[in-house]
Amino acid sequence: MKTPAVRSAMSRLSVRQRLTATIALLTTLALVVVGLTLYAVESRRIDRTIESSLVQETGEFRALQQNEVDPQTRQPFASADRLLQVFLERNLPEAHEQLFAFPSAGKPTYQGDPDPELQRSKEFPALVSDLATSGGTRTLRLAGRQYRIAVLPVRAGDEKGSFVVVHDVSASRSDLRGLMTTYALLAALSVVLIAGLASWSAGRLLRPVRRLRETAQGISDGDLSARLEVTGHDDLSDLQRTFNDMLDRLESAFVTQRQLLDDAGHELRTPLTVLSGHLEVLDLDDPDDVAATRELLMDEVDRMARLVDDLLMLAKARRPDFVRPQPADVEALTHGALDRARALADRRWVLDGAVRAMLPLDGQRITQALLQLSANAAKHTVPGDEIGIGSRLHAGRVELWVRDTGTGVDPAIVPEIFDRFARGDDSDDGFGLGLSIVSAIAEAHHGDVVLDPPASGHDGEPATGAVFRLRLPTGDPT
Q: What is the Cα–Cα distance from 280 to 213, expressed in whole angstroms?
């Protein structure tokens, strides 16, 4: 568990440093585990080798004692001392091993590299004396060294002796310690190299993140034009593309917001100027002037209230809950919009057709869009003109339209007719937000609204009127 001090120290490191430190730590732990495992395995192997060597030497001595004869007399060995002497003459000990003959009388003799510390010790002869009768194997620790000693009692004729095999365990393990020292040095060098490579690789991998941070800092200063250079096809490249897409959306939203504020300020300035001008010249002593000014000012206040409501509607269009799709009867929606539109103006309202279909739509928003298109049609027609409302399924989409036989749309303003504050002509007393609201409703349904190209009339003359068409997908827009 990390202490608060460790967590505080880690939090001050960069991501590159954290990755490098983590990789170095994991590599170190792995090498330590491998080293400890190697040491344990080799230690057990050395112990098994020593035990096998002791068993082999004592086994060879027993074989000589049971099956061989004295090479001088060609008779069985007459004494234990002669048996021990012959065995030592015929056998050479292995590395770090000594063979001792403890005769019935006299000093012991040995075969192998001399070990003065062992030969001068009193513990070694005492241990041999303890096992001279029963035999066996014991461990002797002497002057910081470890010995494994096997004692085999010897009897030949009336004499007794002891055959002793001594293996220097510390000397055997010294080679292992040298190996582990070399391993530790190589492991430390490997950790340094791996940490260096990890730092270099982390720097290359995190370079896109660093550029992303620098770009984000530029954005905080108000610069939205910077973009990341995307290279590769990995996860970080996908992050860069996503970030660039986000910047595109932010830049578009900020430009739209500035334009909206500029346009809204321009549109509000006129009624405010009217209010201020009439209040300045108002004659409070003239009741007729007060009444006329009051009526005019109330009309301007109503216009500003409509502008604010329309702007709020457009602002809500960006919210995910702007539309709430539910199974809606398109035929009923078409008839309902036509019935409501009849109250807008004295026109010849007709039903062009209604499709029978249940589709996931926000019925209230669709009705609002159709009524807005109907109100626009009423503004550009006169009594006696025809306005038609209809719906159909076409090319995998549902289409709802409003058609009129009025003056039509000036071709010069068609490209920006769905922009905010775009008006059909100077006589239009609206704010030019109606079609923008219709477009926002269509986009919220993942569809669009279009103005049909003008059709040809009689004798090749252009037809009058306009047809605005909502084209919506038949699936769930969410």
A: 55
- Vertex 389, ends 388 and 393: CA angle to 5°? 130
| Phi-psi domain of 113 (left: phi exceeds 0; alpha: psi -120 through 50; beta: other) | beta
Distance (Å, whole) CA 231 – CA 457: 56
For residue 284, how many other CB atoms are within 10 A of its CB?
8
pLDDT digits (tens, 9 = 90+) for 36-90: 999 999 989 988 988 898 898 888 888 887 777 777 777 777 778 888 888 888 8
8 A C-beta contact, residue 383 and residue 406:
no
**Residue 456 DSSP class:** B
CA atoms of 419 and 341, how far apart (whole Å) = 24
Query: What sign for the dihedral angle of Cα 282, 286, 287, 292?
Result: negative
Crossing angle for the helix pair 169-205 and 15-67, to the nearest 10 degrees: 160
Confidence at residue 397, expressed as pLDDT on a 0 to 100 scale:
94
Q: CA–CA separation, 153 vs 168, rounded Å?
A: 21
Contact yes or no for 354/336 (Cβ under 8 A): no
Q: How far is CA 36 from CA 33, 42, 172, 178, in A?
A: 5, 10, 18, 14
Centroid of chain to Cα 295:
63
The pLDDT tens digits of the residues spanning 391-431 come to 999 989 999 999 999 888 877 777 777 765 555 554 444 44
* pTM of structure: 0.49
Q: Is the pLDDT of residue 470 over 80?
A: yes
Locate 273 and state its tokens: 């100027």
Per-residue pLDDT at 222 exceeds 70: no
